[in-house]
């Protein structure tokens, strides 16, 4: 006897498919197509695993991977809200809260997913702070790898805009903040390439 029936599996797969349909503004270096939330999630999971494993941080890897896997699942229903979309930012909290309520209602049989999302959003442990900071580092890291033209330049995002949005968020985990400092040093050596300013 199993707990899950075929319709349950199909329902969960539909949620996963919805995350693959959410287009983001970000893209992989050297490409013109935007990534989707599932691709972004894969990059974050692997980046977090890589950093936590190599740096031997003593963090709980299972929690890290679960946080990274679940961190943007609500975008399946709320959509992605780009950092510099001032209009979208006004409704982001409400849309994401409603999306989370929908996931809770659709998957009551999966309380572990619900508590993982809640714990990530609360950021009350080192693992969630680590994943949150790494998530905020990832898009600038990708932009810094652009070979010809950056998204920042194309969208008229200034270096000061990036620093204003990212600094306090990335500072939530000191090691990731150290990487951010190194990345900023790289950007500052060639601001004219990365930004219009």
Return residue spans where pLDDT drops below 50 for at least 5 consecutive residues: none
Radius of gyration (Å): 18 Å
The helix-strand sequence is: HEEHHHHHHHHHH
The 3D shape can be described as globular
Query: What is the CATH topology assignment?
Result: Hypothetical protein af1432
Oligomeric category: single chain
State the CATH architecture: Orthogonal Bundle
CATH class: Mainly Alpha
Terminal Cα separation, in Å?
A: 64 Å
| Overall SS class | mainly alpha
Strand count, sense and barrel status of the largest sheet are: 2 strands, antiparallel
CATH superfamily: Hypothetical protein af1432
- In spatial order, strands of the major sheet run 1-2
Counting H and I runs of at least 4 residues, what is the number of helices?
11
Query: Level of helix content?
Result: 55-70%
Total domain units: 1
Overall mean pLDDT = 94
Strand content: under 5%
User: Using DSSP, what is the number of strands?
Assistant: 2
Protein name: 5'-deoxynucleotidase
EC number: 3.1.3.89
GO molecular function: 5'-deoxynucleotidase activity; metal ion binding
Organism: Candidatus Kaiserbacteria bacterium CG_4_9_14_0_2_um_filter_41_32
Report on the architecture of this protein:
It holds the Pfam family HD_3. Keywords: Hydrolase, Metal-binding. GO terms for molecular function: 5'-deoxynucleotidase activity; metal ion binding. The chain has helices spanning 6-21, 37-55, 61-70, 75-78, 86-106, 111-122, 126-144, 151-154, 159-170, 174-188, 191-194, and strands at 23-27, 34-36. The protein has 197 residues and is mainly α. It has one domain: Hypothetical protein af1432, CATH 1.10.3210. A two-stranded antiparallel sheet has the order 1-2. Helix 2 runs antiparallel to helix 3, helix 2 (37-55) crosses helix 7 and helix 7 packs antiparallel against helix 9 (159-170). The mean pLDDT is 94.
């Amino acid at each position: 006897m199993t707990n899950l029936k075929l319709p349950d599996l199909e329902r969960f797969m539909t949620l996963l498919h919805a995350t693959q349909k959410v287009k983001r503004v970000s893209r992989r270096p050297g490409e013109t197509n935007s990534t989707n939330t599932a691709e972004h999630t894969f990059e974050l999971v692997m980046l977090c695993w890589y950093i936590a494993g190599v740096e031997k941080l003593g963090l709980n890897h299972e929690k890290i991977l679960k946080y990274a896997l679940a961190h943007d699942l609500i975008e399946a229903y709320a959509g992605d809200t780009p950092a510099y979309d001032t209009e979208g930012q006004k409704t982001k909290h409400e849309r994401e809260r409603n999306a989370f309520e929908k996931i809770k209602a659709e998957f009551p049989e999966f309380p572990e997913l619900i508590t993982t999302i809640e714990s990530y959003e609360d950021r009350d442990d080192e693992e969630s702070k680590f994943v949150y900071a790494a998530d905020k580092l990832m898009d600038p890291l990708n932009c810094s790898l652009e070979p010809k033209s950056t998204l920042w330049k194309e969208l008229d995002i200034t270096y000061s805009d990036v620093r204003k949005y990212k600094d306090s968020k990335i500072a939530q985990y000191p090691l990731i903040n150290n990487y951010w400092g190194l990345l900023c040093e790289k950007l500052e050596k060639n601001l004219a390439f990365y930004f219009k300013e």
